[in-house]
Design brief:
With about 475 residues, the chain is α/β, with parallel strands linked by helices. It contains 13 helices and 19 strands. The N terminus is likely disordered.
């Protein structure tokens, strides 16, 4: 998932006419961080050909070089998944009565095909004020900040009151993969025990000029669920075509799904988000958001808000085709046609209800609709945004982005917080890394993050963890 919630998962590209900007002069601590971040981005952690274990080992080596003892570093890899390992690291606190805090980050990335990218996805490249590479935004920036912060704390001799734990995990980006956060929650619960965890899930939204509009904090997330649509057929020779073609059946069903919008739904956080963001966004979009906050049935306002992929994902359950597979020979009628439908289910809606709706929409008994297993438990309600959680966020945000409002948000993307909150570790999404309206290429081509967003987010998270670390 992406570190700043409002990424639209579009194929974001930098503006073609972007004016070259001089690289900022980095502080010595930023130079060290840049090297760490570069190493993490340039370590391929795709499921198909990369290694999270290698990335975790490299981060462990940096922590050890900073003075962490072997006893405070806990690399792990489950049997049968040698390349999908991770790391838990601990900075010991001074008060045994103060419950630990946990810094969570996945280090795996979405697949990136070199031939489709303008630049090598596993080479960190800076251009026109942006850093390009797979994982630069989702979410190796925040992962690198967590490692960097622990290193800085050790070098400064900082003595936190509570233990500060770090968990680097694999498998977040692929529903069928081994999931490190799920493994830790079920097999190493004591190792990651914490009063709360900080994670990806929300960041900040920039306007078209790069000005911060709002800093978001995750207040709930939608539930991801894949469904397989499958048609089987006797097939035959392509010189003897019939209308009973598996591909045609599937294509017609997919078209009917693409034409359907699930009903509008709201949580208190999503309605409040629309009300507060509307005046900040302004224009036609802002007016529509404000109108929808007042009247959730306003179809005219909803039609405007739905034109933004990020906002649209907050309004209702969404289902979209993501993969196709059909046929077995160029000169044969297809014997099988399959599609994967990825749904993001609104809180309160069940998997069974969505399956029933998809079956109704395809309106074809030859198309079998099957849920493909659950990624995690369905979180019934998000952890509360208490003053103990929110006040440190407000304090740090006022230092770095004075006057920028802090707005809780329902995230359309799924995070590994879904594994921790149900086992008693309430997990909050906050990164302080602001994203562009087009989504910065997260999960798509030419993923990028603004240089300023990365360094400001680093300063924000470093100070935030220090405040939390001294709480009783």
């Amino acid at each position: 998932m992406r570190p700043f919630l409002l990424a639209t998962l579009a194929l974001g590209l930098a503006p073609a006419l972007a004016i070259a900007q001089p690289a900022p002069t980095l502080r010595p601590d930023q130079v060290a961080f840049r090297a760490l971040y570069k190493e993490l981005v340039e370590t391929n952690t795709e499921l198909s050909s990369g290694s999270c274990t290698l990335a975790a080992d490299r981060m462990a080596a940096r922590l050890k070089a900073a003075g962490y003892a072997d006893a405070d570093l806990h690399p792990y890899a489950a049997p049968g998944h040698p390349a999908e390992g991770g790391l838990v690291a601990v900075l010991k606190g001074s008060d045994p009565k103060a419950r630990p805090m946990l810094l969570l980050a996945h280090i795996d990335v979405v697949e990136a095909k070199r031939e489709d990218w303008v630049r090598d996805p596993f080479t960190l490249i800076e251009e026109n004020g942006y850093l390009y590479g797979r994982g630069t935004s989702d979410m190796k920036g925040q992962a690198a900040v967590w490692v960097d912060s622990l290193i800085r704390f050790k070098q400064e001799g900082f003595k936190p009151r509570r233990d500060v734990k770090l968990a680097l995990t694999c498998g977040e980006e692929t529903a069928s993969a081994f999931n490190g956060a799920g493994y830790l929650a079920t097999h190493e619960r004591a190792l990651i025990d914490a009063a709360f965890a900080l994670n990806e899930g929300a960041g900040g939204r920039l306007d078209a000029t790069g000005k911060p509009i709002a800093l978001n904090v995750q207040a709930g997330e939608k539930f991801p669920q894949d469904f397989r649509l499958e048609v089987t057929n006797p097939g035959g020779h392509s010189s003897r075509p019939t209308r009973n073609n598996a591909i045609y059946h599937l294509a017609a069903g997919l078209t009917r799904i693409s034409d359907y919008d699930f009903p509008l739904e709201y949580t208190s956080a999503s309605r409040d988000y629309l009300a507060k963001m509307g005046p900040l966004v302004g224009g036609e979009m802002g007016a529509a958001m404000s109108a929808l906050a007042k009247d959730g049935t306003d179809a005219k306002a909803a039609a405007v808000v739905e034109t933004d992929p990020g906002y649209n994902g907050m309004l209702h359950t969404t289902c979209v085709a993501t993969m196709l597979e059909a046929g077995h020979a160029t000169n044969a009628l297809p014997q099988r046609a399959r599609a994967n439908i990825n749904c993001r289910i609104f809180p309160g809606t069940t998997v069974e209800q969505v399956q029933a709706k998809l079956t109704e929409l395809v309106a074809d008994p030859q198309i079998k609709v099957t849920p493909m297993g659950a990624r995690s438990e369905v979180t019934k309600s998000p952890p509360p945004l208490t003053p103990e959680i929110m006040k440190p966020i407000e304090t740090m945000a006022a230092r770095i982005w004075p006057g920028t409002p802090i707005i809780p948000v329902l995230t359309a993307g799924a995070t590994d917080g879904a594994f921790l909150t149900p086992v008693g570790i309430p997990t909050y999404g906050v990164s302080g890394m602001f994203g562009d309206p087009d989504g910065n290429g997260v999960h798509g081509l030419n993923e990028r993050i603004r240089v300023a967003s990365l360094y400001n987010g680093r300063d924000f998270l470093y100070g935030l963890v220090k405040i939390y670390a001294m709480q009783p």
